[in-house]
Amino acid sequence: MRHAATLRRHAATRTGRGRRDAGQATAELAVGLPTLFVVFLLAAWLLGAVSAAARCADAARIGARLAARGEPDASAAAMAARAAPPGAEVRIRHGNELVNVEVSARIGAAGLGRLVPDLVVNARAVAAAEATNSPPAPAPANSPTASAMPRPAASAPARAGP
């Protein structure tokens, strides 16, 4: 019987199972779980930053489109701010028949302190200012252009039925 126990002990040592490996799985788990947690945390932070950058780009396009159409800057900035991440800044500039809208937002890790860095994402959109489509004002009756304009031909009254 002693001989069988000794053989079992030597067989366990040869196959890699035995007392020398006791606790190794626990040590690997103790190192692996925090590493896995940090990787998932950074992946979630990166996904949030990419999402905020896309929202800033959409907000800049919305603001540029509205300002180029002739909307007041305050309403264009308000609509852009609604599409942007919370706390974003919207800046609208006009010049050379172009409208330039820049949206920037600070992305932090709420409650995580110094584990992940703060990041500022920016987006800019430029649109050509559209001409206003207001009809021209009619010329006064005593102006020279009013008399030079041809008068429309009178149309025949419409007849009902055959």
Give a verbal description of the structure.
Residues 142-162 have a biased composition (Low complexity). This is TadE-like protein. Residues 1-21, 130-162 are annotated as: Disordered. Residues 1-12 have a biased composition (Basic residues). The protein has 162 residues and is an alpha+beta fold. The protein has 4 helices and 3 strands; from the N terminus they run αααβββα. The protein has helices spanning 2-14, 24-68, 73-83, 144-148; strands at 89-95, 98-107, 119-128. Strands 1-2-3 form a 3-stranded antiparallel beta sheet, with helices on one face. Helix 2 (24-68) packs antiparallel against helix 3. It is rod-shaped. The termini are far apart.
Give the low-pLDDT segments: 145-162
How many E strands? 3
Strand order, sheet with most strands: 1-2-3
Can you summarize the main beta sheet? 3 strands, antiparallel
Spell out the helices and strands N to C: HHHEEEH
Determine Rg (CA atoms, Å).
Answer: 37 Å
Principal-axes geometry comes out as rod-shaped
The residue-averaged pLDDT reads 77
Q: Look at the helices and sheets and give the structural class.
A: alpha+beta
Proportion of residues in extended strands: 15-25%
Q: Helicity range of the residues?
A: 40-55%
DSSP helix count?
A: 4
User: Termini, distance in Å?
Assistant: 125 Å
